[in-house]
């Protein structure tokens, strides 16, 4: 006993948290800009994992089995596939409902999520069964303490997440597009009056959010090498909860929430597997009751 | 002068009963009867969800969680009685009581969930109810006394057509009468503008919790009937996707229209069965590798198309009026 609270669990939690963070960023960016819980976001993550899986079988032979270029191509293709499907979803399903009641968009999002999952599950060459994700880069453990190791895979997960998050921060803080995003999230109408093409900004947001989910899909496939068409549901929900925990619409909040979530889930699972499954929802309920705006969220009031 | 209303609901239900009994005589086989039974169970689930989502406007995504509570509680009771003495006919009073017990258990769970969560609105409430629905399912998946992941097996087949129809009739009648009462108007006020409803003195939280409990009660009864129809209560029967299926019925029929929910429950249950048989026929005829999941693709597309092109569903908020006496124009 007592061994569940150790350095190894922290490392595992950070690794899981990195994947959650990449998904949560998409949730929080989309919510910040269009005030929509994009239910289908978890499925963009799944699409990314399958795109990476497909990329491996298309290109691995041509690359002669060398790991690093293959991982690079898989990453690019996973991000492109997820970003593309996010953009398409926005264009076909969410855009026509932009100025309709919020619940219509939410229900449509549930429909899109179901559609992606079941199309993947129904297509014969993908199918509903589990598939083993190929080993693109062999992972080996590195000793970092008396009872703890960190795998090269964990370093890769945390590293890729960190690079993408730094890139996003630079984009949001220092580019014209980032400035436009911040403006749209504050006040869509005023942004439009200032000459910002709001729909274009929303499109970019979906593209970036979706491609981050795609990167998370690749990393999750490499880390937990088992993929199936419904793999996006639970990580999607947990990442959403992480975004709520951090303060939905707030980018640093989503990252913070995701790492808290990853570590909390790892500890809870080590204690009891049922608790591990339920901890996310327990966190959600406590947050919504105690501090609905999340850790870093800003306070909002109902307008009459 | 008040003229007594013709109890059209009763007439329609009796007519439906008579038609099915007549059809039974001329080769209406067990499969068709099963579809009729299943449709009626979905009527109960859809109408009770419409009370929560449509009439009082609280978006719940965990309806099947309540159905699971009803299914497991009533299933456990009847399985126990059935083991003690397997004389089926003598057990109907016990069955009805078991269903009610399942409903009450579901209602208690509804209250327990409703108090903390109904302060939330819109999309947050949707996520939290989804979460609770999944938690309930996970709990049943981990209780070994009710079969755990194997499910509760050997539930006696007590759900006959007449019993299911009677409960469907009671569900629709009770919920319609509530919706048309002064309480119902308060609920609609909460749906239309909660802040304004609060300001004119309607106890919004009280109504929401009560409606949640009532909807959960009928969902529990529906779940019980479902388990006694399929003779099994299994955690996978009550997953999120099935809550969405009931939700699609509510939206296809029209949120706020009970008639719409009834019609959509029938239409979509029949559509599902037709699609399933069509797909297996196509698979056998063409020898193509066609997955069984295509009918869910149709469901998903249906939901998206309803939202994009006909948000109000089939009926909008209207009800079928079968009154002979012309009503005064309400506009």
Layout of strands and helices, then pairs:
The complex is a heterodimer of chains A (304) and B (331).
Chain A: H1 7-34, H2 41-59, H3 67-94, H4 102-122, E1 131-132, E2 141-143, E3 149-151, H5 152-174, H6 176-186, H7 188-193, H8 198-223, E4 226-227, H9 233-246, H10 251-271, H11 273-290
Antiparallel strand pairs in A: 1-4, 2-3
Chain B: H1 8-25, H2 30-55, H3 63-84, H4 92-117, H5 122-142, E1 152-153, H6 161-180, H7 182-192, H8 194-199, H9 204-230, E2 232-233, H10 240-253, H11 258-286, H12 294-309
Helix pairs in contact in B: 1-6, 2-6, 2-9, 2-10, 2-11, 3-4, 3-5, 3-9, 4-9, 6-7, 6-9, 10-11, 10-12
The helix content of chain A, as a percent range, equals over 70%
Q: Tell me what the CATH architecture of chain A is.
A: Orthogonal Bundle
Distance between the termini of chain B: 21 Å
Strand content of chain A: under 5%
Biggest beta sheet attributes of chain B: 2 strands, antiparallel
The total strand number of chain A stands at 4
Oligomer: heterodimer
Global outline of chain A: globular
In total, the number of domains of chain A comes to 1
- Strand pairing plus helix content of chain A: what structural class? mainly alpha
Structural class of chain B: mainly alpha
The parts of chain B where pLDDT drops under 50 for at least 5 residues are 322-331
For the largest interface, the chains and their residue counts are:
A-B, 43 and 42 residues
Q: Write down the overall mean pLDDT of chain B.
A: 85
- N-to-C series of helices and strands of chain A: HHHHEEEHHHHEHHH
What's the total count of β strands of chain B? 2
Unreliable spans of chain A are none
């Amino acid at each position: 006993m007592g061994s569940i609270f150790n350095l190894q669990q922290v490392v595992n939690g950070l690794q899981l948290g990195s994947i959650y963070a990449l998904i949560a960023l998409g949730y929080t960016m989309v919510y910040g800009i269009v005030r929509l819980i994009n239910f289908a976001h978890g499925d963009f993550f799944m699409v990314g994992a399958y795109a990476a899986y497909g990329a491996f079988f298309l290109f691995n032979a041509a690359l002669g089995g060398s790991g690093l270029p293959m991982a690079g191509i898989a990453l690019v293709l996973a991000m492109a596939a997820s970003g593309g499907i996010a953009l398409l979803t926005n264009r076909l399903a969410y855009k026509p409902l932009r100025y309709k009641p919020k619940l219509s968009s939410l229900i449509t999002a549930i429909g899109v999520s179901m559609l992606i999952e079941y199309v993947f599950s129904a297509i014969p060459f993908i199918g509903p069964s589990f598939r083993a994700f190929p080993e693109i880069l062999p992972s080996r453990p590195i000793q970092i303490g008396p009872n703890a190791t960190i795998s090269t895979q964990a370093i890769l997960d945390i590293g890729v997440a960190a690079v993408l998050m730094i890139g996003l921060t630079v984009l949001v803080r220092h580019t014209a597009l980032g400035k436009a995003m911040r403006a749209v999230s504050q006040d869509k109408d005023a942004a439009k009056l200032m000459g910002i093409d709001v729909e274009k900004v929303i499109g970019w947001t979906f593209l970036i959010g979706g491609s981050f989910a795609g990167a998370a899909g690749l990393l999750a496939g490499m880390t937990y090498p088992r993929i199936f068409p419904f793999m996006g549901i639970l990580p999607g929900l947990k990442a959403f909860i992480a975004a709520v925990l951090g303060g939905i619409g707030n980018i640093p909040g989503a990252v913070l929430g995701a790492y808290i979530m990853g570590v909390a889930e790892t500890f809870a699972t080590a204690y009891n597997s049922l608790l591990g499954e339920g901890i996310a929802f327990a966190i959600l309920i406590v947050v919504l009751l105690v501090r609905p705006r999340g850790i870093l969220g800003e306070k909002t009031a109902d307008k009459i | 002068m008040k003229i007594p209303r013709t109890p059209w609901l009763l007439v329609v239900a009796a007519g439906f009963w008579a038609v099915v009994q007549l059809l039974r005589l001329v080769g209406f086989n067990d499969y068709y009867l099963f579809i009729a039974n299943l449709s009626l169970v979905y009527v109960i689930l859809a109408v009770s969800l419409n009370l929560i989502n449509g009439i009082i406007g609280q978006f719940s995504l965990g309806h099947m969680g309540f159905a699971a509570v009803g299914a497991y509680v009533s299933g456990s009771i009847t399985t126990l009685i059935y083991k003690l003495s397997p004389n089926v006919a003598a057990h109907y009073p016990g069955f009805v009581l078991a269903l009610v017990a399942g409903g009450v258990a579901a209602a208690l769970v509804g209250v327990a969930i409703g108090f903390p969560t109904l302060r939330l609105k819109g999309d947050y409430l949707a996520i939290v109810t989804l979460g609770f629905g999944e938690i309930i399912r996970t709990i049943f998946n981990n209780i070994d006394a009710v079969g755990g992941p194997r499910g509760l097996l050997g539930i006696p087949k007590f759900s006959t057509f007449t019993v299911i129809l009677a409960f469907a009739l009671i569900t629709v009648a009770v919920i319609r009468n509530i919706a048309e009462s002064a309480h119902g108007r308060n609920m609609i006020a909460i749906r239309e503008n909660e802040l304004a409803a609060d300001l004119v003195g309607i106890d919004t939280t009280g109504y929401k919790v009560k409606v949640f409990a009532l909807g959960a009660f009928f969902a529990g009864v529906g779940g019980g009937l479902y388990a006694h129809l399929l003779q099994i209560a299994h955690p996978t029967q009550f997953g999120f996707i099935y809550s969405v299926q009931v939700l699609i019925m509510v939206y296809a029929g029209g949120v706020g229209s009970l008639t719409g929910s009834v019609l959509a429950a029938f239409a979509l249950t029949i559509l599902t069965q037709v699609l399933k048989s069509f797909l297996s026929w196509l698979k056998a005829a063409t020898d193509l590798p066609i997955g069984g999941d295509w009918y869910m693709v149709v469901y998903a597309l249906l939901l998206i198309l309803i939202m994009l092109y006909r948000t109000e569903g089939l009926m909008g908020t209207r009800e079928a009026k079968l009154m002979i006496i012309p009503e005064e124009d309400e506009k």
